[in-house]
Structures are given as structure tokens and as C-alpha cells.
């Protein structure tokens, strides 16, 4: 008897909750092509081999938004299954240090309050981050 093992890709993603001095959080809108096109997200990206989550987050934010951040404590870890892949999000609290955010690898960016996030469509896994931020805010 042959055992069939179906595996889906598993992505490990470093996610930044970047706050500015006014307490707003930076979100970006994904490009109009590809997975979850046009949805809003917290910036970040795939953890590369031999890279820590903190290194990944700092690198991705510099590459995608052109800014320097301080990567702080991990807020939460989320594992979520989408139809075509599994994802683990390593969500860190981050502080904006310098530079003006630019939409280098995304369609657009916004600084928003936690209460404003409900106005933006996010991927399913990000809903847990928003719920956690709402609890912290209250």
C-alpha cells in the first residue's frame, strides 16, 4: 500500500506593527496581482534561511517601505491555513525611527488608528492581530 502525503507550502512571515509618535499604526495595501491582491496588511515578509525574525522584519521594512525601525518584543504568533498554503506570522511591536515611508513594494500606505482598521479589508490571519490591538487599546 502506498501512502499519499499532501503537503502545502508553509510560509514563515515576520510582521511589523509599526507605531509612530502619534500612536498610529502603519498598514500597506498589497499589489493588485498575486496572493491576496489588493488587501491591506501589516508590513513584513518571508523569513530567509539563517535569518532571525527580527532581522527579517528590519530588512523587509527597509526594502519595502524605505524606513528604519526598531524591532521590539513579539506580540503574538499566529498559524493559519489558507486554501493553498499555511502561514505562521511572527508579530512584533516596532517603532518608526527614521525615514518617510514609501510604497516601494506595495500599492499604498496609511497611518491609521486601531479603530480605523475596520474600514480596511485584511487577510483572514491579520484579523487576530487587529483583535489583539483592540484589546491592548482598551
From TrEMBL:
It catalyses: 8-oxo-dGTP + H2O = 8-oxo-dGMP + diphosphate + H(+). It comes from Stanieria cyanosphaera (strain ATCC 29371 / PCC 7437). Residues 8-136 form the Nudix hydrolase domain. Mg(2+) binds at residues 44, 64. The keyword Isomerase does not apply. 8-oxo-dGTP binds at residues 30, 41-44, 126. PANTHER family: 8-OXO-DGTP DIPHOSPHATASE, NUDIX HYDROLASE FAMILY PROTEIN. This is 8-oxo-dGTP diphosphatase. Gene3D superfamilies: Nucleoside Triphosphate Pyrophosphohydrolase. Pfam families: NUDIX_4.
Amino acid at each position: 500500500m502506498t501512502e499519499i502525503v499532501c503537503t502545502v507550502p508553509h510560509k514563515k512571515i515576520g510582521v511589523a506593527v509599526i507605531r509612530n509618535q502619534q500612536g498610529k499604526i502603519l498598514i500597506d495595501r498589497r499589489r493588485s496581482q498575486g496572493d491576496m491582491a489588493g488587501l491591506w496588511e501589516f508590513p513584513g515578509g518571508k523569513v530567509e534561511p539563517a535569518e532571525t525574525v527580527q532581522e527579517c522584519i528590519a530588512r523587509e521594512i527597509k526594502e519595502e517601505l524605505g524606513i528604519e525601525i526598531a524591532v521590539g518584543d513579539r506580540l503574538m504568533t499566529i498559524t493559519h491555513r489558507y486554501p493553498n498554503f499555511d502561514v505562521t506570522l511572527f508579530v512584533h511591536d516596532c517603532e518608526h525611527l527614521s525615514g518617510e515611508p514609501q510604497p516601494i513594494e506595495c500599492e499604498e500606505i496609511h497611518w491609521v488608528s486601531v479603530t480605523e482598521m475596520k474600514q480596511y479589508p485584511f487577510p483572514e490571519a491579520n484579523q487576530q492581530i487587529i483583535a489583539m490591538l483592540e484589546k491592548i487599546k482598551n
